[in-house]
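Problem: given the chain below (184 residues), write out its structure.
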Amino acid sequence: MLAGPTAVGKGTVSADVRRRYPEVAISVSATTRAPRPGEVDGVHYHFVADERFDEMVAHGELLEWALVHGRRRYGTPRSAVEAALATGRPVLLEIDIQGARQVRRTYPQAQFVFLAPPSWDELVRRLEGRGTEDAAERTRRLETARVELAAEPEFDVTIVNRDVGRAADDLVSLMGLPTRRLEP
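Solution.
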């Protein structure tokens, strides 16, 4: 399970794991937010309307869910995670801090990994560099990030995301899989 503050690179690290480690099942979260440029429904997220998300919550279809940044909801579909676990595949959940707390109650034996930025300034640079949020949304996300960074002690392991490939390899290594280090 991988969590960390906004713009730390959770999606980028997960995408690198998906590309180089196909034996790892990557959970695809559901969200009520609109896709960012280049995002594909069913690959990056399941983009759903608020009404559908309400149904998923009501029917127990989500392992965890949360309102993130006070605006949009995100959640982990339960069936895909349980199906992958039943086959013995390692599963990577890329979720927020609220979701991690919920998953810990359901799967306390899971490995909880916090993805941290190299510095606050680098986190701000990454968020601004995405160019996908307006100034008000960036401010909101940075306020949330301060709270999320304070949750780091709740996790079993911290990986500092200085380099995406190295962070992905460190994460896969924690799953007990051999790594395929990228050449420098």
